Amino acid sequence: MKAVVIGSTGYGGIELIRLLQGHPNAEIGAMVSSSSAGKPLGEVYPHAAHLTFTLEEMDVDGIAEVGDVIFFATPPGVSGKWAPTFLERGKIVIDLSGDFRLGNPDTYQQWYQREPAPVEWMERAVYGLSEWYGEQVAQATLIANPGCYPTATLLAVLPLLKEGLIQTSPLVVDAKSGVSGAGRGLSESKLYCEVNENLYPYKIGVHQHTPELERFAEAESGEPVKILFTPHLIPMNRGILTNVYAQAKPGVTGHDVADCYRSYYENTPFVRLKPEGEWPQTKHVRGSNYCDLGWHVDERTGTVTAVAVIDNLMKGAAGQAVQNLNIRMGWPETAGLEGLPLYP
Ligand SMILES: NC(=O)C1=CN([C@@H]2O[C@H](COP(=O)(O)OP(=O)(O)OC[C@H]3O[C@@H](n4cnc5c(N)ncnc54)[C@H](OP(=O)(O)O)[C@@H]3O)[C@@H](O)[C@H]2O)C=CC1
Ligand SMILES: CC(=O)N[C@@H](CCC(=O)OP(=O)(O)O)C(=O)O
C-alpha cells in the first residue's frame, strides 16, 4: 500500500511523513508540495534529510498512479477541490482539513466562509473519530479526519451524552491549544513575543469547530445540543487540553460517570482513563496518539467536569489519520503508532 501526502511541508504533513516512514505496512509513494516542488525534503526539513525524497508538484495522473491512499494535510478549500478527482479514480482519501466534516454545504459556508466541497462527497464522507465511527471508517472511501479540538472534546463528552448522564444544554467547552495547532504559516499572532508568556482566547462564538462539535453531540444524544466553545492559545509547541462543563442529570454520581467511561473505552488502545482523583496533563501524551481522560462529578454544584488531553498533531491530526488508515486497511489499529509519548 502506497500513500501520498499532499501539503508535505506543513506541520500535519511532516507529522504524517514521520509516522508513515516508520509504519510496518505502509510506504510513502510521493510527497506533494505546492510551495517547494523540486526541492529535496531535507532542504525544507533538515531533521528529515536522510529521507531521500524530492517534493513533487500536484500532478493528478502521477499521484493516482503511485498512490493507493491520498492524505490531504492542506488548509480548508484544497481537498474540497481536489479530493473528488482522486475518489473518482478509486483512491481512498483521508482529509485532515474541515472540508468534509460537516455534511452540509450551507453550514460549511457559514463557519468556514468559503466555497464548500461538492455536496455528494460531503454527504458520503465518514467522520473519522476512530473510537466512535471505526465500523464506518473500515468501509469508507473518503474519511474526514476530525478537528483537533473536536477530537479531544467529543471523546470526553459523547459517552455522557449517549447514556443521558448530562443535560445537553448548556455545554461549556473551554480548551487550550499549543501553537502548532495553527499550522506553520507565518502570522504576527504566532510570533515568539506574541505567544511566549501569554495566554489568550480567540474566535469566541465564531470558531469553525462549533458546528462539528454540535453535529456529533446531537447525533449521539439524539437531542439538539448547543455548545459554548472558547479556545485559547498557550505557549507550547504541541498539546490540547479541553475542559467540558455540563450539568449532571438528577441522581448521577461519580460512579455512574466512571462506569460509563469504562464501558466505552475499556478496550480502546488509545483512550486512557485516569484513576479517580487524577487528571490529565498534556505532557503525558506528547508525541503520541493517546487521549488521556479524567473527570470530576461535583455534587455541590451538580456539575460534571470532563478533562481530555491529546497531542494536536497526533491524535488531533496525523496520528488519528494513520489510525483511520489502519482501520480502513484491516491492519492492527495501533500499527505505526505504538511509540511511548515523549518525556520529559
Ligand atoms: N495543526 C494541527 O494541529 C491540526 C491541523 N488540522 C488541519 O490539517 C490541515 C493542515 O494543517 P497544518 O499542517 O497545521 O497546516 P500548515 O499551515 O502547517 O500546512 C498546510 C500546508 O498545506 C499546503 N498548502 C497551503 N496552501 C495551499 C494551497 N493553496 N494549495 C495546496 N496546498 C497548500 C502547504 O504545504 P506545501 O507548500 O508543501 O503544499 C502548507 O504547508 C489544515 O486543514 C488544518 O486545519 C487538523 C487538526 C489539527
Ligand atoms: C491553535 C489554532 O489556531 N488552532 C486552529 C485549529 C485548526 C484546525 O484544526 O482547523 P480545521 O477545522 O480547518 O481543521 C484553530 O483554532 O483554528
From TrEMBL:
The active site is at C148. Pfam families: Semialdhyde_dh (PF01118), Semialdhyde_dhC_1 (PF22698). The gene is argC. InterPro entries: AGPR, AGPR_AS, AGPR_dimerisation_dom, AGPR_type-1, NAD(P)-bd_dom_sf, Semialdehyde_DH_NAD-bd. This is N-acetyl-gamma-glutamyl-phosphate reductase. It comes from Polycladomyces abyssicola. CDD domains: AGPR_1_C, AGPR_1_N. One of its GO terms (molecular function) is NAD binding. Gene3D superfamilies: Dihydrodipicolinate Reductase, domain 2 (3.30.360.10), NAD(P)-binding Rossmann-like Domain (3.40.50.720). Residues 2-140 form the Semialdehyde dehydrogenase NAD-binding domain. PROSITE patterns: ARGC. SMART domains: Semialdhyde_dh. It catalyses: N-acetyl-L-glutamate 5-semialdehyde + phosphate + NADP(+) = N-acetyl-L-glutamyl 5-phosphate + NADPH + H(+). Pathway: Amino-acid biosynthesis; L-arginine biosynthesis; N(2)-acetyl-L-ornithine from L-glutamate: step 3/4. Catalyzes the NADPH-dependent reduction of N-acetyl-5-glutamyl phosphate to yield N-acetyl-L-glutamate 5-semialdehyde. Its EC number is 1.2.1.38. Belongs to the NAGSA dehydrogenase family. Type 1 subfamily. GO terms for cellular component: cytoplasm. One of its GO terms (biological process) is L-arginine biosynthetic process. It is found in: Cytoplasm. Coiled coil: none annotated. Keywords: Amino-acid biosynthesis, Arginine biosynthesis, Cytoplasm, NADP, Oxidoreductase.
